[in-house]
Amino acid sequence: ESYLDPSREADLATQLRRALDVEVLESAVVSPEFREYERLATTVLSAYLTPSVSRYLSSLDARLPMERRLVMTSSGGLAPFSDAPEVAGRLVLSGPAAGAVAAAALGEHHGFDSVISFDMGGTSTDVCRITGGVLAVGSGHEVGSRVNRVPAVPIRTIGAGGGSIAWLDTGGALRVGPRSAGAEPGPACYGRGGTKPTVTDAHLVAGHLPADLALGGTVSLDPEAGEAALAVLAEAVSLPVEATATGILEVVDSNMEHALRSVSVEEGADPRDSVLVAFGGAGGLHATSLARRLGMGRVLIPPMSGVFSALGLLLASPRADAARTVMMDEGDSRLEEAVARLVSGARDRFRNLYGDEPDTVGLAADCRYRGQSHELEIAVEPRWPIVRERFEALHHQRFGFTRPGEPVEVVNLRATAEGRSPLTWADLPALEPGGKPTGDNGVWQRETLPPGFSLTGPALVVETNSAVLLGEGERLAVLDDATLEVTL
Question: What is the DSSP-derived secondary structure letter of residue 209?
Fold first, then answer.
């Protein structure tokens, strides 16, 4: 098995490169853990992506003057350009991971221990739960229905965005997404030739967006086109256009509520103990509605929320990962040696990639009761008596029971060497309001609202790349860093 002894696989890869003059990926490098199908699927995905990633990064590398060029990965950390093509699968969902990094930093800055990030764009919604300002990094995720077993922030993604199309299934039930109108032609109300009813069209018809609003300062809304798109659907369900718009918003909110519950309630965590950090171009339009559905009392909406994920790229840290399958009981004396070798390997890899010493090395273990087929990942230290304690606490949280006296097996070990982030939230320049607070008919320009400003809904707060919808009685306050805090 290559995850135990990669030498034969490495020898074969070398011979194939010489004989065929092609790029060959080794499964022991891409995913050095047991389970053959998952390792194969992950390596195939990386091999499929590698040519495109290599061409793109080579072209970008030639045009960038910086000495050290880094790319975001799905783990929430950075990797050098030179390393990315070899593990191209780690770039999948790297954008949403950057959003989670930024949400963690924002929540920590404002003193919240538990954060649920909610990133709603034009096509999809990405959600993630963050505890103690630290992103959990799991051992993989699915891309569509395909396994991608690489270090990844546990993000749940669904097809729900401002451009998601509303439609009727064969049973006549109203559905929203995952099909999207995309950027071109976009929602019907953009006036660019779109004819399908979307979430954005529903907001316009429902009166959440004023007809004279220019999205991004440039896109004028066409109420007649938006209403015409919804009218076809309204006729099919025998409802007024306005009621159809409300139904579309209810359905998409229900879909996103389910996603938020999947990263909280279904993992044994109460969402009421968390603050919702909402961003993405459409995030602010649905944030308070979703918070109410989940019983959450507070929402944070960062400045420039439509491009907030890009900020996560600046807040992320350089990172190097190492993993090993061990299959040992928690009390096995060989575990200490395995940990020492793995930590040393992670440190060496970090030095080779960045030429520096890592600031920290974190350790995680996949554990299970003997006889179980799947594991739970826990953060550990080289003091093994705490393994059972942490594993059983998580097992009880997830499943509601433990098995005292049952042997706990350590299946995989992972070490993460991490450098210092070039920026923290406190380093970011403060955004200065432009002029005095400006509002007309309940529509406020966010760029004009100074720290300390407050208002009570109903209201709409708009900026260049996003908007925030406040319901009746919801209270908004502008914090010191221009973040909007909404109290329900």
Answer: S
Domain count, the chain: 2
Residue 192 located in a structural domain:
yes
Domain end position, chosen among 420, 435, 462? 420
Whether 474 is covered by a domain: the verdict is no
Instruction: Name residues whose C-beta falls within 8 Å of residue 60's C-beta, 6 or more positions apart in sequence.
Output: 69, 81
Query: Measured between alpha carbons, how far is 3 from 36 in angstroms, rounded to an integer?
Result: 9
Domain residues for the domain of 241 are 164-251
Asked, for residue 157, whether it belongs to a domain, the answer is no
- Residue 456, strand partner residues: 475
By CB atoms closer than 10 A (0-12, 13-18, 19+), residue 184 is: exposed
Distance CA 393, CA 436 (A): 52
pTM confidence score: 0.90
Contacts of residue 125, Cβ cutoff 8 Å, sequence gap at least 6? 118, 119, 157, 158, 160, 161, 256, 259, 280
Mean confidence (pLDDT) of the chain? 90
Same domain? For 416 and 327 the reply is: yes
pLDDT in tens, 274-331: 999 999 999 999 999 999 999 999 999 999 999 999 999 999 999 999 888 999 988 8
Residue 382 pLDDT class (50, 70, 90 cuts): low
Name, in order, each residue with C-beta under 8 angstroms of 123's C-beta and a sequence gap of 6 or more.
159, 161, 163, 164, 180, 182
